[in-house]
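Quick check before the chapter quiz. The format below is the same one you will see on the exam, so make sure you can read both the input and the output lines.
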Amino acid sequence: MQRLLNVFLIYLNSQGDNMTRKEQIIEAGLNCAANGGLTAVTLSGVARKIKCSHGTISFHFGSLAGLHNAVKTEAIKRKDKRVLPWLRAAGEKV
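Here is the expected output.
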């Protein structure tokens, strides 16, 4: 069973995009935030963008608030010019 799992993981890792699922979720969240701030970042919107379930997002971030925090943190870290104006407008210190 472990060997089969390892083969499957190798297969998944060989499929083009090397981003982890967590990174994909954050990237999708940033894209949503670029179009409307954190209020535009929803579980269903992010899940739809990367074709995953709400449960996958909750597994990585715990809740919508956790996802918002991760998106905000990543936007600040990257100095993302698409998202920072939305955060400032919402009263966030960035």
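If your answer matched, good. The chain has one domain: 20-89.
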